[in-house]
Amino acid sequence: MLIHEFRYKGSDLYCEGVKLADLVDEVGTPCYVYSYKTFIEHFERLKKAFGSIQPLICYSMKACSNLALVRALVKKGAGLDIVSGGELFRAKKALCRGEKVVFAGVGKSDGEIRKALEVGVLLFNVESESELNAIQRIASSLKKRTSAALRLNPNIGAGGHAYTTTGGYLSKFGIDFETAQTLFLKRYRWPDVHLCGVHVHIGSQILETRPFVEALKRTLKFIEKIRLRGVKIQYLDFGGGLGIIYDRERAQSPADYAQGLVPFFRKSKCKIILEPGRFISGNSGVFLTKVQYVKPTAKKRFIIVDGAMNDLVRPALYGSFHDIFPVRRNGQARKILADVVGPVCESGDFLAKDRRLPEVNEGEYLAVLSAGAYGFSMSSNYNSRPRAAEVLVKGSRFYVIRRRELLNDLVRGERIPAFLR
Ligand code: LLP
């Protein structure tokens, strides 16, 4: 069931108690708008579904890493799943304690490892033997100890798109069972890295429980096997990946997901960690954009808007579907078939293709739905477009949580060398 706080009251689309047309008058477009209620409720729903085993829910910041949103979850007791030094920096700014941070990623740099050791993260989720060596070397030089999990590749891939499927043997992620077993048995070689967990993340936008359960069964078998060899496994970090409704998907509910997994989690006798990203932020955010021009051509009708692939790249990159609603219904019942495209100089710059939409006029506004995950966080300055503003709505108030970028932000850090002056 799709649950969010973006609804029409009369002709106007609201986020909670805020009329989006009013918000746009003040903030302008393009902008992202997030519902605090939807965001927190999704976290709470997941927490409730797994209530019987009390996992540590580490929000996967890459989905949407605005400090205000991250802080909101941290205040509710969430931990964080990070994947870079930049995300560690954000985690600290959001006042998340190190012992609630798990650090993933195939290519952690020495600098990032050093920072994470200084902060004292709960777990490094390690993806290779070379990475283990690096963590050992740096930990020993800093006289620090740390805990780590090996990220397993259970050879099950699932997800909404090939680019977001991470579990097959052709993927760069994780370590096959055999190699992982060898590393666990050689754990004495990393005396400052306490290898005490396993991590699994098979992909993103997974709609059914089956691949999760299959991956978990294989993982459990592995845990049992290495326990027999004397390895103590304390943590099972089962990643993220829970899919959401963008269009007409039949997504599993958190309750279905929990029901499928909890029996195995219990059996593992581990502290369970979950890393949801999209499930928490996806349906909590919309992207608002203004219709600049309507351009009928011989073959097609284009609705040219002021938001583009640099703001929301998912349609261009994955062919993703995002529903589009007018911010104010203009009373025209007729539907038209159109491409909704941005001003960027690429044919791949579209937010929707061959979409049936209510007829819209120049100067009106559109809301692109389910844009809260991998929306702003994947945005760029391509075509030297300042990045959009981000706004948080709570009840009948709204807060600009990231101001629209200024032209000067575009060239921040750039220098013209003396010989060119
Ligand atoms: N944990 C790890 C180790 C991950 O790599 C990811 C996502 C997550 C957790 C959170 O997954 P989620 O619950 O959000 O599915 N840009 C793509 C999605 C990339 C996902 C990357 N990893 C998209 O827009 O669909």
Give the count of structural domains: 2
Strand content: 15-25%
Mean pLDDT level = 96
End-to-end Cα distance: 60 Å
Structural class: alpha/beta
CATH superfamily of the largest domain: Alanine racemase
CATH architectural arrangement of the largest domain: Alpha-Beta Barrel
CATH class of the largest domain: Alpha Beta
The dominant shape is globular
Uncertain regions spanning at least 5 consecutive residues: none
Ligand set: ligand LLP
Instruction: Please tell me how large the radius of gyration is.
Output: 23 Å
Number of helices: 12
Give helix % range: 25-40%
Number of strands: 20
The main β sheet shows up as:
9 strands, mixed
CATH topology description of the largest domain: TIM Barrel
How is the quaternary structure best described? Answer: single chain
Task: Give the SSE layout.
Elements: E1 6-9, E2 12-15, E3 18-19, H1 20-27, E4 31-35, H2 36-49, E5 56-60, H3 67-75, E6 79-82, H4 85-93, E7 101-103, H5 110-119, E8 123-126, H6 129-142, E9 146-151, H7 177-185, E10 193-199, H8 210-228, E11 235-237, H9 254-268, E12 271-274, H10 278-281, E13 285-296, E14 301-305, H11 314-318, E15 324-326, E16 335-341, E17 350-358, E18 365-368, E19 389-394, E20 397-402, H12 407-410
Parallel strand pairs: 4-19, 5-6, 5-12, 6-7, 7-8, 8-9, 9-10, 10-11, 11-12, 14-16
Antiparallel strand pairs: 1-2, 2-3, 4-13, 13-14, 13-18, 15-18, 16-17, 19-20
The structure holds ligand LLP.
